[in-house]
Design goal:
The structure holds 2 protein chains of 2 kinds.
Chain A: E1 3-7, H1 25-33, E2 43-46, H2 61-69, E3 77-80, E4 83-85, H3 89-108, E5 114-117, H4 139-151, E6 156-160, H5 167-173, E7 179-186, E8 204-209, H6 215-233, E9 237-242, H7 259-273, E10 281-285, H8 291-307
Parallel strand pairs in A: 1-2, 1-5, 5-10, 6-7, 6-9, 7-8, 9-10
Antiparallel strand pairs in A: 3-4
Helix pairs in contact in A: 1-8, 3-4, 6-7, 7-8
Chain B: H1 6-9, H2 14-29, H3 38-62, E1 64-68, E2 74-79
Helix pairs in contact in B: 2-3
Classes of the chains: A alpha/beta, B alpha+beta.
């Protein structure tokens, strides 16, 4: 089994104001973690920018035009409370998308069984008609549509264990019965969506978790709600919105997961991918703002992707 | 954002604290709380909830049963729990 790691050399060129949690150092922390000898077996590739015209598959033309118009010539511009643009931000968003599509091509082409993309900015809050919550474009949603266009994939499942609900991904796919969206997240918390009664057309499963809850509650939510629905959906491809901000050390949320919990959920999703999806899985970095927790969580996630052996659930 | 310090919460009346708590719940549920401040807003909500609970408890302790004479006139009070 080969696992592909996509890195993004220009990732830090999307600059946010001093003190902003979504910062270039996040990727540096991951680069350092993945330099460890146990990651020596990885296949590695550097992200090459994709054409942002592909974003039109999931975003309105007016939103993309507004985003282009908001790019500052110098300094840092703001498009809403949390979300900022620097002169090269859209180029970085394009390289994040390009890297994710390289991972898709490798997995669909059989050159890798699965892949993890250490990319920024994150994407899962970007809705069809607006950028928000540190996210400019919804990268994972575009990858799902490209999987259809390039490879004729029919049923795509997007699983999201970032601590925040992926309102953007849900918004884009809530009426699409061929795209499954399953999310575990803290609730209440930003962005306020992700309640149990948001079920789309039967294709959306949310598992809101209470503040200060940990691995036990998370495992119950996956066992009882998300995994049975995912298996019943029968995906041809699994995409993961991998945020590592559910870790107890993260400054933006209160869930109390530990690196082992990220390993557990990764193993369970791999189990699910072993059926109809023939192990095809592409994972994209979303959030994670404590650099140590981010590096440990992502290393646990990548370690399980490489192992090919699903983590044994502690019953 | 200019949030009041939690010390200020102690000075709020029940009605003021409840009103602010309701506005925080609406903000969190309506997605109006910024990502970076969502957790601070939640924690202020928790502090307001605790303050409201403490005020309710104090009010409860002050409620006393009114005792009535045989002809139905109030003659005094006894504590609720007696």
């Amino acid at each position: 089994m080969t696992t592909l790691l996509i890195t993004q050399p220009d990732g830090a060129d999307h600059r946010t104001p001093p003190g902003h949690p979504e910062r270039g150092e996040r990727l540096k922390a991951l680069d350092e973690a993945f330099a460890a000898s146990r990651f020596g077996r990885l296949a590695r590739a550097e992200a090459v920018a994709a054409d942002l015209v592909l974003a039109e598959a999931v975003h309105s033309a007016s939103m993309l035009a507004a985003l282009r118009a908001a790019v500052p010539e110098a300094g840092i511009g703001q498009i809403e409370t949390d979300t900022f643009l620097s002169p090269k931000s859209l180029e970085v968003a394009a390289s994040a998308l390009g890297g994710a599509l390289m991972a898709l091509d490798a997995v669909m082409g059989g050159r890798a069984e699965n892949a993890f993309c250490a990319i920024r900015p994150p994407g899962h809050h970007a809705e069809r008609n607006r950028s928000m919550g540190f996210c400019l474009i919804n990268t994972i949603a575009i990858v799902a549509q490209e999987a259809r266009r390039r490879y004729g994939v029919e049923r795509v499942a997007i699983l999201d264990f970032d601590v925040h609900h992926g309102n953007g991904t849900e918004d884009i796919f809530k009426n699409d019965p061929d795209t499954f969206y399953g999310s575990s997240h803290q609730w209440p918390l930003y962005p306020g969506t992700g309640t149990l009664d948001e079920t789309g057309v039967g294709n959306v499963v949310n598992a809101p978790l209470p503040p200060y809850s940990g691995g036990k509650e998370m495992r119950e939510a996956y066992r009882d709600r998300i995994l049975p629905a995912l298996r019943a959906f029968g995906p041809d491809l699994i995409l993961i919105s991998a945020g590592f901000d559910a870790d107890g050390r993260d400054p933006l949320a209160q869930l109390q997961w530990q690196p082992d919990d990220f390993a557990w959920v990764t193993g369970k999703l791999m189990d699910a991918a072993g059926g109809s999806a023939d192990n095809r899985m592409v994972s994209l970095l979303e959030g994670g703002y404590d650099l140590v927790a981010l590096a440990e969580g992502a290393a646990a996630h990548l370690g399980v992707l490489m192992s090919g052996v699903a983590a044994k659930a502690a019953e | 954002m200019t949030e009041k310090k939690p010390d200020d919460i102690a000075k709020l009346s029940f009605e003021q604290a409840l009103a602010e708590l309701e506005s925080i719940v609406a903000k969190l549920e309506g997605g109006q709380a910024p990502l970076q401040q969502s957790i601070e807003i939640y924690e202020r909500g928790e502090a307001l909830k605790k303050h409201c609970e403490a005020l309710l408890k104090a009010a409860e302790a002050r409620i006393e049963k009114i005792t009535l004479s045989k002809d139905g006139k109030p003659t005094g009070t006894t504590p609720l729990d007696d």
